[in-house]
Amino acid sequence: MAAACRGWEQSLVNLDLKNAQVLRPHGLVRETLSFADGEIVSETTGRAADLSGFTVLPGIIDLHGDGFERHLAPRRGAMKQMSEGLVATAAELAANGITTGVLAQFVSWEGGVRGPEYAANVFEAIRDTAPTLDTDIRAQLRLEMHLLDLYNDLPDRIRDWGIDYVVFNDHLPHDRLAEGRRPPRLTGQALKAGRNPDDHFEMLLALHARRDEVPAALDRLCPRLAAMNVRMGSHDDNTAAGRDTWHNRGATLAEFPETVEAAEAAQSTGATVVLGAPNVVRGGSHKGNVSAVELVTMGLCDALASDYHYPSPRRAALMLADTGMTDLAGAWSLVSEGPARALGLEDRGSLVAGKRADIVILDDKSRRVAATIASGRFTYLSGELGARLLN
Length: 391
Description:
CATH superfamily of the largest domain: Metal-dependent hydrolases
Radius of gyration: 22 Å
Structural class: alpha/beta
């Protein structure tokens, strides 16, 4: 069931969800959950729906996902209607119980769909299209930190794009470049970006050669972003010292730390530790880094993100609860309350009166998403639950 245009008053639903299991902050209870005018309310509305056989949970808040790329650029050259790609992305998010989705777009030396020119088009499309969608879609700029020539103008561009979340990456293959050797897959990467492989290699060498300039440049850039109230994060931290450096620059999120040491350092300074939900579902890192399950077990995780697979936050939270690593309230908070806190979104993340009516409803038998409601509007509805509500 497609969501109605946000401007239509009739798209807002006032409803009493009865006979379901409802996940409140303290745990599961069988009680009625009511919402009206886009908010959770304490009084019933008078319009009831029987949800026996279903579980009602807070909508998922995805802090970092790049699964949208295939919708915006399904094939090389097919990138002319990004707004339509964002509509498709919103539909996929809703089908997976995500009510707030942060789209992580690279600005990288990799070029192509991760190059600065393409990224500018993506950010402009999100800025212009997101307000027309019922799913709350936001942009994250993933900046390859060796692109020093972009630093001077970047704050102005960020302001124009309406971005309030920047994460710093370094994916240069420094070890290979230090030896003057070509990285693996260089030719394919260059051709995908429309570059001659030799020119691409020379560009990587030039970026690597300026590596000693990067720390001071970041020390100048980060205060400028902080003054604009831009939230900042580090990515793939692997040492405590490295994470502490990012803390001193004002980076309050630590995405996908690669070691226990780095995760402990992040959490000790109050940073939000964000782990990949696919890592939890898979049972380990595909790169051989510390397992997200291990970090969750140690209490070193504040939020789970979809990374590259939108079904994974729901699946990871349920798996953590099913295996007894935590109860459902604790597991689900990693995809709802934890991310809300990290983004400063005090109006969502839990099913409490006065919060936004951001809700996901799961079928108790299949554990699949039966419905998603964002700010009191249905963004996804299917199966038996759809039949109950429409009859």
